Amino acid sequence: MTILDLTSHPIAAKYAVLVDVGYLYAAAGEVLLGAKERKEYRVAADELIQALQKHAEARIHGELLRIYWYDAARDRVPTVDQRVIAQLPWVKVRLGNLNARGQQKGVDAQIRSDLEALARHHAVSDTILLAGDEDMVPAVEAAQAYGVRIHLWGVEPPYGTNQAERLVWESDTVEIISADFLRSFFSRAPAPVPVPSTPIAPSPAQVFAGRTPATAKPKAPAGQVTKLGPSRPRVEEVGEHVAQKWILTRGRDNIRDLLPGPILPTVIDTELLIEAEKELGHSLRPYPEARVWLRDGFWARVYREFEIGVGVSSK
């Protein structure tokens, strides 16, 4: 099928990009790495999204409404990567549920609903759809009935095709994203952290052993009242408590994605600070050293959970 160059279109378009992440990742993982499951590879999703945005800008003369990023998470609790993606400008993360067998539920329905709603309300004149499922066909036809042009993108397959034939037929234009375009954003996942067969939980003394004491603060000039900050043991205790809560609510697999540490993604580091301030009942922002203690406590609990060491400072 011929790919149309929309840059010559006389009327500026307003368009959205709808990405079925399950399809994109699975197809790219297969063609690039021969992978069958997402846990086998890592994706630089923020860089990939920026590249897709530039790719769209080069093909459609007009204004981007936003990029819709459709993915799934267990109990719809976002993963570390999904939380980072949600902070990106012009990106809307939509989450379906991931069941115990790793199957996505509700994602296709969200894509169909948004595609039809954008067309019905005349929010866009064009839509780029990066997907492959035949279930998209009714929504494509409905959007076209409202005058929206559908530009289907697919991932280069290792052989044959990885998109439904009817979906290809019904779309206005079709483009295949090459493996070379995607290659730099996908890499094999590191080997899993080994867990001892007979793990032994360290004692509290071992947890805090070897940590350097807080650096003494210089005395304030005579007549100046100093503002006392929180104590190190209390801040570290809160850091461990937040880590424990996240392990229980977000799941070990999501927390494992933070390893090996001790650097936290900015989004997660900010969430840690907010959670800690809520528990302490006051701000930690005037105390840079308290931020370090907070991270120390957080990592002490995470490392203990995965039996890979304790007491690693983030300083």
TrEMBL record:
<protein>
    <submittedName>
        <fullName>NYN domain-containing protein</fullName>
    </submittedName>
</protein>
<dbReference type="GO" id="GO:0004540">
    <property type="term" value="F:RNA nuclease activity"/>
</dbReference>
<feature type="region of interest" description="Disordered">
    <location>
        <begin position="214"/>
        <end position="234"/>
    </location>
</feature>
<dbReference type="Pfam" id="PF01936">
    <property type="entry name" value="NYN"/>
</dbReference>
<feature type="domain" description="NYN">
    <location>
        <begin position="15"/>
        <end position="161"/>
    </location>
</feature>
<dbReference type="InterPro" id="IPR021139">
    <property type="entry name" value="NYN"/>
</dbReference>
